[in-house]
User: Fold these one by one.
Assistant:
Number 1:
Amino acid sequence: MLLTRPLLPSARMAKLEDIITHTTDILQTANEERMLSDREFNLQLQLRLSRVNLTKSILRSKILEFGLGFPMKEYLYIVGKLSTEIERCKKEVKGIQIDLLTELEIERQLLCNAKIDETIVVLALRGASKSM
């Protein structure tokens, strides 16, 4: 039974909640640092996360029907609809996280390119003023 414990719906749920928390933290930090310039993308991401949080709450309610701890009844749900729904939700959150991280890297690259261009202009102006 110890080997199957990570497959229990409650264990899967804990992992799902960790992923959601991590993704939400990344989004919050990105917004605080004003790293997401595309407002539409930001709103779509927030909508997707809100939907995931609703699904998480529904799934959590189903798990609470088993009672607290690891009662024997929960072992019957290691494979089945509840576990499948949790894994589907986890996959959605990972997709959100990938989209968010990809967008952040694009924004970082744009900032780096702007910084490089700015530095080139400053160096060119200094070089031009020294040659006069």
Number 2:
Amino acid sequence: MITTALSSVLIVAHIRRWTVNGSWYESSFATITSKRAAIQSGIQLLAALLALIHTSTIAVLIQHGSRLAFFNSGGSTTQSLKGWMNLSIPRVRWDLRPRFLVPILAFSCLGLVSSALWVGAMTPVGSTIVEQEILQVPSFRNTTLIKEYPSEISSAGPSTTAKQGLFTYSVGCTVDFIPTRFNVSVGIRGRNITVVPAGQVDDFDSQRNLTRTVVRQFELVSNDLTNFYESILGNAFLSSIVAWNMSSNENGTIPETEATLRGLENAVTAMVESMLAAYGAAQLMVGNFSQDREANVTIRVFVIGELVYVVAIAVLNALVLLAVVVEANCTKGWKGLPPFDFSDPEWLITASFRGGELSHAWSQDARESLVAQGTAKEPFTSYVPIQRYGDKDQNHVEVISAEGDQHDVALMLQSR
């Protein structure tokens, strides 16, 4: 029942896509990641216990079946009895015949296979899920607030202060641009942002208020932050040129004019992107001009086990359960199962001792006399000889019980 319930839960978990993530409890992700050794050791131990349930179930089925066959037939060969005893434990003895040795080896491997499948079915595996969220992005349908405001403090233009910071329209550059839709991917773990063009969109700034104001900011920065000794804007350009040479022109194979253009391009691009981001934030926070967009959020999660192992252990568990049902149906609920167990050393010693006493008490003449007087006084036996080939199979173990008393059982060894 335990293995059936657990395998069913694992199947349902994969069908319904249950995951382990931060929404379960705050440190779930960190716990699984940082304590892999402890978690894996616990899973190995639990898998061994679950595999023990499988092997114990099969061992009990074999034991009950062999006991019914042994007592119903009245006996068996010593080689067969030894084979059934080792198969029900299971224990490998290399002196057994192949018809018993091969099943014992296969049965011994069942526990290893079952344990390995349980480990694969229960080990947390890293995965990702994609969830759709609604984000508010800036809308540029209304650009009336985007213009060049006076630089006086008292007339700085509309602004607002929120917990995210100060947002104002007093930032800004006119370079013509082509409106383009972009797919933006934000990698939190890798700390990177990937922007890929996704096609053109309708021109939402036909008056070029946005681009003209952005370019104007370069003039303002140059005018306000330049003195007799240095220019902040010039220093930014020079730093970008030096950085480009260090990263892409280490050998000096690219002409200085080309390197200068690449450095200026990177500097202007970075500053324009920052200004446009500021205007977008102002549209969203100050003007409350926004529109909803669907965002696919990829979240790192853990799933319990891999599907192939979950299916495999479910099939194995179903086969074990099917074997129990079939055996119970064939034996009618193990009706007539004797109370004796030939794999129990105590019972074997007691029954063998009784058989020795009977063998010592019966002489050949006494036995012939008892047979001549009638079969009613002869000890009852249901032994049916089982013909086997080979010297080791010529010794038969016979089950003898007193008439009407199934609790008085003896074992006798006969050579055929």
